[in-house]
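Sequence decides. Consider this:

===
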Amino acid sequence: MTSEQWLLELEDELKENILGFWLKHTLDEERGGFLGKIDNNMQINPQAEKSLVLNARILWSFASAYRMYGGGDYLMMADRAYAFLKEAFKDKEYGGYYWMVDASGAPSQLKKQVYGQAFVIYALAEYHHATGNKEALEEAVSLFRLLEQHGYDPEYTGYIEALARDWQPTEELSLSAKDMNEKKSMNTHLHVLEAYTGLYRVWKEEELRVKLAELIGTMIDHIVDDKGQHFHLFLDEAWNVKSETVSYGHDIEGSWLLFEAAEVLGDEAVLARVRGVAVSMAEAVLDEGIAADGGIWNEAEPHGLVNENKDWWPQAEAVVGFYNAYQLTGEEKYLEASQNAWSFIRNHLADPEHGEWFWGVDKDLKPLKHEPKISAWKCPYHNSRSCFELITRLTPSAKETHV
């Protein structure tokens, strides 16, 4: 596939199938913001909670779309997400943002999940980048300082998973029912890294530079394994490893996000260190995590695969992560893996009937139709970002606009 053909497919998928779906189907006209859940048959659950992660990811996605393309519809979606974030999710008493609100926008889960705060920073920084909104930047900076004050571990470095509404310690740490209830996780650190990278693009202050540089080092020293191939998923506060599971999606996502962070930081020594890790992680996923059909599996443990499904988000991240490895090495195997991941998405995950992507497919490549089309976790961020990144990387003139 030529770059020109690929660009045409990427833009069509992004504008028509992904962004177009969210524009058409997701606004909650009755209660504000966006609908909390739509199943795979497009049935709305009007009572579903609305998640901080989903709202922040909608804000990030449509701010990015507006920054890349302009357009009143994209700006309307970003403005709407920004307004609902302030109105419904922001804790006016203690600062920070609630984890969940109910269908009408009243707080329903009050804890301060650091992962969720990170996505707010990420979204606000992008919204400021796209629109110049100074209030959004000020709020992102304020939230960064709150995280450093309450979520940072001054003894061992890194960030605690969650805190109570008033930023005091809590025993309810895990992101979801499937996650371990440990003090620290790869997932939270990866997305704090992503948030700080996005903020540093638009706010190059020394206090943030120091924390971003430290976090890159922390991830390589404690969260990437000794071989430089995989992330440890769960750890205690002193960085003792608590899980043997490998998440291929997070490994390939992290490989390019680590490199992006070092690139935005602009420190050549850090960049040189991260380059080797990024390539090593991409190579391990290519060697271990790819099925014959070009899709990447979800998870494995030392004895072998434990989840043979292929969810939507690891495939989206594989497109970017392998292309990033190709750019770093010039090795054609990574370009081929990136294009194969894209073909897998087009052939098996993009929903030709309703739009957007299926949650995933099973080992027989049948869509997981019991999984939702929209939920607290099913969002437009992984798939739109995959398109934004590849369009940018394949179009040199776009880089000035997007990066």
Notes: Residues 398-403 have pLDDT under 50 and may be disordered.
